[in-house]
User: Which sequence fits this backbone?
């Protein structure tokens, strides 16, 4: 019998799929660490992408995915709702999302190519979320579930 130490899954307020398909529950039951890739929804949860043109005309694969192109404007409703919570908390929406993933017991691994974004992401360590704030994030995530194939 093999032992599994960790499972890497996409997990963020942008992607709650594994809360409903049994993966997270099983990991918790078995004591398997969850490593969450794309805790910023491939950057969309940072709020910096407001137009599909950011993903088209380059080698950016998001430009071929409906969730980031054809449905981007609808999906930004989640970002807008999260930004309101982040403003009240005094942090960026990206920091809020990373802190939320960590508060769920997962290890967030946001990717970046820029020092400034790395520093911003690191700042999520200072963001402490109450149970009520965590629930507010979950509520807006469930009310504004991103649509479109990924």
Assistant:
């Amino acid at each position: 019998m093999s032992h599994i130490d960790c499972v890497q899954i996409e997990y963020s307020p942008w992607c709650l799929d594994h809360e409903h398909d049994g993966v997270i529950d099983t990991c918790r039951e078995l004591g398997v660490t969850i490593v969450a890739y794309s805790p910023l929804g491939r950057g969309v949860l940072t709020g910096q992408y407001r137009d599909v043109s950011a993903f088209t005309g380059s080698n950016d694969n998001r430009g071929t995915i409906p969730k980031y192109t054809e449905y981007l404007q609808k999906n930004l409703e989640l970002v807008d709702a999260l930004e309101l919570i982040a403003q009240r908390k005094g942090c960026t929406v990206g920091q809020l999302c990373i802190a939320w993933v960590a508060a769920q017991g997962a290890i967030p691994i946001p990717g970046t190519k820029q020092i400034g974004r790395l520093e911003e992401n690191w700042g999520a360590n200072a963001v402490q979320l109450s149970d009520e704030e965590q629930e507010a994030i979950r509520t807006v995530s469930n009310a504004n579930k991103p649509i479109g194939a990924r």
